[in-house]
Design brief:
This protein is mainly β and about 650 residues long. Helix content is about 10%, strand content about 35%. It contains seven helices and 40 strands. It is globular.
């Protein structure tokens, strides 16, 4: 131990009050030495919340001793108490040594989407619209937390990591779980609190109604990982607390409008290490008219050849097929109570493949403008030859971590009677048999209920070909310039991307890389003569390169080029040797690479985003602009006819 703090409260009968004394010590040459660290206490917390003594120490005081104190390291604590007849050597009570992580005790709960939210604290969720987690198969630190694949707590329950990384024999964990992102939606008679953690945990919300001290418990609300662990893992990364009138699921009464309520959040990992927030509050909306979350439009931007439908009343019939009710660009209007539990089906138009999500939560913040697009190449994966279907990691995080389905079902392309199910990586490789964990619902059509709604891909035979091709239906949201993207995906490590990576790509092949923890792709769209057309996504940019030519791309709209692509050579009409490399060069207005369409750099604004997804509305802007031009042409024709008529007269 590096520090020792002593607090004594002794009743003074002469003064008729307790006299408090504080002593701080640091470890020096194996002995305790008095040191200049200010200590205090908090009578309100001791008497109102804890019912026992406490010592408060300023972190800045500890930081004066850098060889003894690390601001980011876990802290080991040992506590002993003594009454009148006891002392430090023979205490009356002790708390065995335990570990805690800075920021996990009495932490604040802040809404990531609230006005004035800490943009640095919620950088990932504000940029992506969701909390992104680790892809456990690609040897990349996807979430930029300093750990890769099985060494990341996100992969604790991955098939690949059953006995490695955080699950390795002898692995020692001293960290407490941390809440990494919070989204709060206030309604006139209810509230929804969604929170994510940096490692799999269970979640509990203790509700204190109008008690601002959080001492008089009203109701305890458990996350579905605890209440429905037949289909959900008890410990997972996303959590939600629906506070509304439903005695079987939540409260036995409705919340009052424009009223402040108090609560705490507690999360515990599989090793029973827990974190508890401070007493926090929310205020319900004044009315439906003044509720920013009560009514919204649900619309998912799908790849070409994929349909999305909704069963809002959960009667087994998908009554709303997106694009077939109010027009091809229309969404579905939903209110917060109807959206609380909805079934969603993503299905190929030929019916060979579908993914079904039950009891999802449709919310305005969960379906923000950065989440609705799952139409890029590779977002949805299926292969009718190698018999697998699924979602890549970004799509998984958008749907699972934002819509919170409680059960998932898939239909795999298969001929004959299927009897096995394997969980694989995005390319259909590295498969693990999960037949015993899944439920076969229809052997003739190969329909399964998945264990715990886990993705990336699921395979019917567990024997994919390494050279197999996967199809996303490609480019439905932003063009595509060549139809469905099929081919092999080559995952590039951060080291390879930094030094430059080359490969021979055929049409439909793509390279996957990361920029600031977000996945991006370079795909070959067309090979013709001495030129190659490429697509760069996630925000679609298209370019044509000649042999020896290099083009640069800003993929995250920060007015800096992040990627260079060079065409080295062409092998007939089948393959192109292409090099991709990470760069960091400022975009100078007017000097953008020519021949790039859909570029994320806008000449007129010096770096603002172009080609951004239009917010979900009933009719998109393109349609109305077309009619405006038609009307202008008609008026010109009428005006010209009138002029000629008068001239003849």
């Amino acid at each position: 131990y590096e520090f020792r703090f002593k607090y004594a409260s002794i009743w003074n009968s002469t003064k008729s009050k307790a006299v408090e004394t504080f002593n701080a010590y640091k470890c020096e040459n194996g002995a305790w030495k008095s040191t200049d660290i200010k200590l205090s206490t908090n009578a309100n917390k001791m008497c109102s919340e804890m019912g026992g003594p406490m010592v408060v120490v300023e972190k800045d005081d500890l930081s004066k001793f850098p060889t003894l104190y690390n601001t980011s390291a876990d802290i080991k604590v040992y506590v002993a108490t003594a009454g009148n007849s006891n002392n430090m050597t023979t205490p009356s009570d002790i708390v065995d040594p335990g570990w805690t992580t800075p920021g996990t005790v009495d932490f604040s709960i802040d809404n990531a989407f609230a006005y004035g939210a800490d943009s640095a604290k919620f950088e990932d969720i504000l940029k992506q619209g969701y909390v992104g987690y680790e892809d456990c198969y690609n040897e990349i630190d996807d979430d930029s937390d300093g750990t890769i694949d099985c060494s990341d707590w996100d992969c604790e329950y991955s098939d690949k990591c059953a006995s490695t990384g955080v699950n390795a024999a002898g692995f020692v964990d001293t960290s407490s779980p941390m809440v990494t992102g919070v989204k709060i939606e206030e309604y006139p008679d209810a509230v929804l609190i969604m929170y994510d953690t940096n490692k799999p945990t269970n979640g509990t919300l203790t509700f204190y109604n109008n008690d601002s001290t959080c001492t008089s418990l009203n109701t305890t609300l458990y996350d579905v990982g605890i209440t429905k662990n037949a289909t959900m893992r008890s410990y997972k990364l996303w959590h939600a607390a629906h506070i509304y009138s439903d005695s079987s699921e939540s409260l036995a009464y409705a919340l009052a409008n424009n009223t402040q309520y108090y609560y705490k959040i507690k999360v515990c990992d599989s090793n029973d290490r827990c974190s508890v927030s401070k007493c926090s509050n929310f205020t319900t909306a004044e009315s439906t008219e003044k509720c920013g979350y009560c009514n919204f439009v649900t619309r998912l931007k799908m790849p070409t050849g994929w349909n999305v439908s909704y069963d809002v009343d959960q009667d087994g019939t998908y009554e709303h097929l997106q694009g077939q009710v109010c027009g091809p660009n229309a969404g579905m209007k939903v209110n917060y109570s109807d959206g609380r539990s909805v079934n969603i089906k993503l299905e190929k138009s030929d019916g060979q493949v579908y993914m079904e999500f039950f009891n999802t939560s449709l919310t305005k913040s969960g379906l923000n403008d950065k989440v609705r697009t799952i139409s890029d190449s590779g977002d949805l994966i299926h292969d009718t030859t190698e018999l697998y279907v699924g979602m890549e990691s970004d799509t998984r995080d958008k749907i699972i971590n934002n819509l919170h389905p409680e059960a998932c079902k898939i239909k795999i392309p298969f001929s004959g009677t299927c009897s096995e199910l394997y969980h694989c990586d995005d390319s259909g490789n590295n498969c693990e048999d999960r037949t015993n964990d899944a439920t076969l619902l229809d052997a003739a059509n190969c329909i399964w209920q998945l264990p715990y709604c886990e993705f990336s891909t699921w395979d019917a035979d567990g024997n994919p070909d390494d050279s197999s091709s996967s199809s996303s239906g490609g480019g439905g949201g932003g063009g595509g310039g060549g139809g469905a993207a099929t081919g092999t995906t080559y995952v590039i490590t951060n080291e390879q991307f930094s030094s430059g990576y080359s490969n021979n790509l055929g049409v439909g092949d793509k390279m996957k890389f990361q920029v600031v923890a977000s996945n991006h792709f370079v795909a070959v769209n067309k090979i013709s003569g001495n030129r190659v057309s490429i697509n760069v996504t996630s925000e679609l940019q298209q370019a044509s390169l000649s042999i020896g030519e290099t083009k640069k791309f800003d993929v995250d709209s920060d007015n800096y080029y992040d990627l260079s692509v060079t065409l080295n050579s062409i092998n007939g009409t089948t393959n192109a040797d292409i090099t991709v490399k990470s760069i960091n060069e400022e975009v100078v207005a007017g000097s953008e690479d020519s021949g790039i369409t859909g570029n994320a750099v806008d000449d007129s604004s010096g770096g603002s985003e172009s080609g951004q997804e239009t917010p979900a509305i009933v009719i998109e802007e393109d349609s109305s602009l077309t009619w405006i031009w038609v009307l202008i042409v008609i008026l010109i024709v009428i005006g010209a006819g009138y002029w000629f008529y008068n001239k003849k007269q």
